[in-house]
Amino acid sequence: MSSERDSETTLDEDSRPNDEVMPYSDDETEDEPEPRQPGAEPGQSQSHGRAEESREPGKKDCSWQVKANDRRFYDQPAFKRTIFLCFKKSKYADNAIKTYKYNPITFLPLNLFEQFKRAANFYFLVLLILQSIPQISTLAWYTTLVPLLFVLGITAVKDLVDDIARHRMDNEVNNRTCDVIKDGRFKTTKWKDIQVGDVIRLKKNTFIPADILLLSSSEPNSLCYVETAELDGETNLKFKMALEVTHRQLQEESALADFDGLVECEEPNNRLDKFTGTLFWRNSSYSLDADKILLRGCKIRNTDFCHGMVVFAGADTKIMRNSGKTRFKRTKIDSLMNYMVYTIIVVLILLSAGLAIGHTYWEQQVGNCSWYLYDAEDFSPPYRGFLNFWGYIIVLNTMVPISLYVSVEVIRFGQSYFINWDLQMYYAEKDTAAKARTTTLNEQLGQIQYIFSDKTGTLTQNIMTFKKCCINGQRYGDSRDRAGQLQSHPEQVDFSWNVYADGKFLFYDHYLIEQIKSGKEPEIHKFFFLLAICHTVMADTSDGQLNYQAASPDEGALVTAARNLGYVFLSRTQNTITLSEMGAHRTYEVLAILDFNSDRKRMSVIVREAGGNIRLYCKGADTVIYERLHPSNPKREATEEALDVFANETLRTLCLCYRDISQDEFDVWNKKFVEASLATSNRDEALDKVYEEIEKDLILLGATAIEDKLQDGVPETISRLSKADIKIWVLTGDKKETAENIGFSCELLTEETAICYGEDTSALLQTRLENQRNSAGSSPHSSLRMNEPFFQGSKDRALIITGSWLNEILLEKKKKKKKLKLKFPRTAEEKEKQAEKRRRAEAYKEQQQKNFVDLACECRAVICCRVTPKQKAMVVELVQKYKKAVTLAIGDGANDVNMIKTAHIGVGISGQEGMQAVMSSDYSFGQFRYLQRLLLVHGRWSYIRMCKFLRYFFYKNFAFTLVHIWYSFFNGFSAQTAYEDWFITLYNVLYSSLPVLLVGLLDQDVSDKLSLRFPRLYILGQRDLLFNYKKFFLSLLHGAVTSLIIFFIPYGAYMKSMGQDGEAPADYQSFAVTAASSLIFVVNFQIGLDTSYWTFVNAFSVFGSIALYFGITFDFHSAGIHVLFPSGFQFTGTAPNALRQPYLWLTMILSIAICLLPVVAQRFLAMTIWPSESDKIQRNRRKYLLEEQQWRRRPSAFRRGLSARRSAYAFSHQRGYADLIASGRSIRKRRAPLDAVLGTAPGTGDARQTS
Predict the structure, then answer these.
(1) Are 706 and 531 in contact, with CB atoms under 8 Å apart?
(2) What value does the mean pLDDT take over residues 632-660?
(3) Strands 727-731, 861-865: pairing kind
(4) Where does the secretion signal sit in this chain (predicted)?
């Protein structure tokens, strides 16, 4: 047993997770695509015979067939799937995107069906049917129909407005155009009309409409540069390259129209980084991989045009597969409200049953003996009791408030507009306003416990800037004058002397500029020369401007810095590079480029300089550079100290060094280098080994420091949210070092934070799991929870874990594909053993996941790096599952969509990375810093308003309805109403609705500034303190007491009373008016007591509702309306007669005073003796507003020896352009114009070289 357990959870050294590698992407496709054979390079042609041979084994994996320019090909029965009974549909999706729910035909039936799925609406429909039965109806049918139609109508209009917006957005995307081959010519076609197999043409700066196979482009060797910001949030360009055969033969329009290739590939899936397929064309086959596929959502950059064949369209594209399922989101208050409505219905049934029993007893004792009560119906007392049960269900129906849901919708709708209109959440730079894209989740914003944030483009601007450097032990980059003296007021360096300077580059160290211009320091020359020459950036000139294309934004920042400081990279060929060194143009021979990868963490170039000497220039992470330095490096310690200073300022550091190489040494090494380059197997490993031989005994030049610019206000926002007891987890696809460095930059991590990594976490969880197994004994079902914390002491802790470790720890790692063995369990015992083993494995997995969540939640901050979109969603789901916490996910790219849809609240940032995240989000705005206002102000206010609204709403309905019950004891439990029918109809619609709606929309306990200044106020919502079952039953009790007072004080006053003119006002109708009037005064004054923030509108609504009640009542009790509708208006003259009696007004004043004075006393005592946090702040608000100061960042104490925290230089998440440069495939010949390509053959020109 123990060995079996060990095999389930222990790690082999070979399978140890790699922190640098993004774990394999996720999908319902279970197995990874088989890797290509070492000998088969992409684009390499094989014979048809071999192709057919290799086609059989992969047929199962490559079952998706796409034929170019042949739409009839997809009509074959083999490509159809059954959707319902005998109805079949093509398995190939069309390219139209549909996010709307209704069309003109389905709107009414579907919307009504959805609305009647709500328990309350269905309940009132049943009630309406019951009211149409004369034997049991005690109320007119219109008392239910009018409110029900009002509720259904308001909700339908809101749903219609939302769906029209979705239609517009879909149409905007679906009606974009591109050129598609039709009838042998390119014709402009809408995206929605594109189909699989179509050959399309895309132009520069246009989005890609589907997943397409790149066939050719205007660039050399049919390269195509794409920006993948929509997919992964990265704005640096990536290149794709067509097959050599399609590049050569598919440039002309006629050739593209005649193209009839067949692609066999994997089924649609969500693996952004993988693609496996084969192109069969002209009796040859060509292997395809992800480098030849352009994905939907990417944008064509720096490429005039390209041609491609659609492989996946619409819902089958990888970006749509990655978007996850759209979940129906509802708030905690929604769920609680539904349960409370169910509780009220149960109470209603029990009360009706009790009153029906009372009526049965009354009939037996009194009714049958009273001849004057005979109604000509010979029903038995039990049957009369049964009819009265339904009668009371109708009379007491207002206990279930029909207008509750529509009132909630109106409040949410208004709150959403307040978010949209908030100018303090408007981002002027991008002209982006905050947008509430849903109207159903506002109060949930006031209950968030966990925030899951993306990094790139969400916390950071995804803009790298060169800030500081250390050259030969001397630090540069501080604000200094030409003499090297520090300046109190930073003055920007004027780069007008440099014709190539980038105007966006800002630098403040005038002393460094003077040193460069003087030329006295050779190390400074070498330093910036290295930055200008050691890279894989490619240069392009457009409109007289020099532009760079970099494999990573860091590399672009360094080359731009060198450019501004006088060392300008101008152009390159396959084996030369041209620079401008302080105005002098020089060309150098590049002998070799030793490219970056995540294991090497460095890159080098070997250059032959003007004098013929050979020199290696290298840059990389300090951890790998320091291991390869020559023993005699006098500036080693000074540079290390500078690295500590830079790291303490949360800058990304990088070391620069060089080495002179003799001709003989280079010749020997170059021979090995060529052999490794031509290796057919393990080429990368062979090259890395050869690189190691030459990258040694390096001379240290210095270090650079780059700032990965945070968005404005990120540290302040995180600090405020932390004070509100909200835990923030960062989930990113970026590298561990980069993510950790950003953690320090945004003050999620501090110097005092103890960081726990993947291996530490795995060990802790392994120990806990073993202890739990031992405690559980032999029973596999026992999962005894260990309650003691994982960490002892109160030390500030953070968890940093990579995607690979996450899969390992959560037992999510995919097992390698095994060969099929036809071995099945033959006996029942074997089947039971297998089932037991599966159950045990599942139980262990669940326990491990629960332990991980417990451990992570003990940490103040959690950073998950190198995680896939599905892992992001999985982490959110685990916290929701095991902590029952309210979660919010915020991101800006398509890789965040799954996480945004999984969390209770999804927030999209509209900025650098396109609109995919925004379109899937519930709320959107332009900057991360607006999140604090969304939660601490709008969220908190929305929660308080909604809770106050619901407590009051239940109170006013109980106070209104329970009067009928007290009246029943005096009318033989006959289900007679205590009020006039029209009062019952209009009570919730007109007489008591407006004041509470305005409180739900406008009320605020403290101002927005004080809400931000005191984030602890937010904790009320997290703990559900303002609305829960306790508050609900208190509202019920308060309503019941009010109803007793409303009924019994007028009842007592009417006994043996006489009016001043001798008329007795003790009749039923006068009593009904008195009770109703008292109720209107009480409930409207009660909402006045509940209002914290008074405006003219609130005051007008309270007194206006009372005035409206009296106005309508006098109208309905007039003789004129009785003449017109005698059966509908029977209280003729009651109000004018009753309300002119001072005795009744005194009765009403007494009722109001007894209802409200205890509430006033309780509020006064509570605020004086037990004030809440908001009461204290409100009391001192003027003092706080005078003291209002801008929050300042806490300065962190400088410490030495923090090299473990230095961020490794993030060259790129993939190899750079070194292979591309060395092969000469990227070297641009004179470009043929687009018209020439479509018409005549392109002219040929000489290669442009600078010598």
Answers:
(1) no
(2) 87
(3) parallel
(4) none
